[in-house]
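Figure S7 source data.
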Amino acid sequence: MKLVIAIVRPEKANDVLEALYRAEVRGVSMSRVQGHGGELERVETYRGTTVKMGLSEKVRLEIAVSEPFVEPTIEALCESARTGEVGDGKIFVVALERAIRIRTGETDHGAVTPVGK
Ligand SMILES: Nc1ncnc2c1ncn2[C@@H]1O[C@H](COP(=O)(O)OP(=O)(O)OP(=O)(O)O)[C@@H](O)[C@H]1O
Ligand SMILES: [Mg+2]
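Tokens for the predicted magnesium ion complex:
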């Protein structure tokens, strides 16, 4: 299992959710975050030029998936979140040790995507 974490543009959030649904990925958490991708903005101050790390609004998705869904999830994210301009976002894939569905006590592959497969 993997935890796929994606940071995308807020205006792409609906497209991303639709693409994930089409890829049969059914579990997702979403939150608003502020971040920066490393680019530094030059700011003039009275003492001279300094740099500022400007934060921009992004949406963070967390998607726990079983192995067969890792690549489809990444593909859906890349296709739906991309504009080609800087700031399109990032995807981090993290090893996921355990997952538990609270209602049933199902664990691991039974507890993440796919549902009903
Ligand atoms: N190394 C990182 N660690 C954690 N979060 C990151 C990292 N890089 C980017 N992010 C998050 O992703 C968001 C979007 O990053 P961004 O798309 O600007 O990445 P980038 O590497 O600068 O790529 P690009 O050159 O396309 O802009 C950031 O605002 C931040 O929230
Ligand atoms: Mg950037």
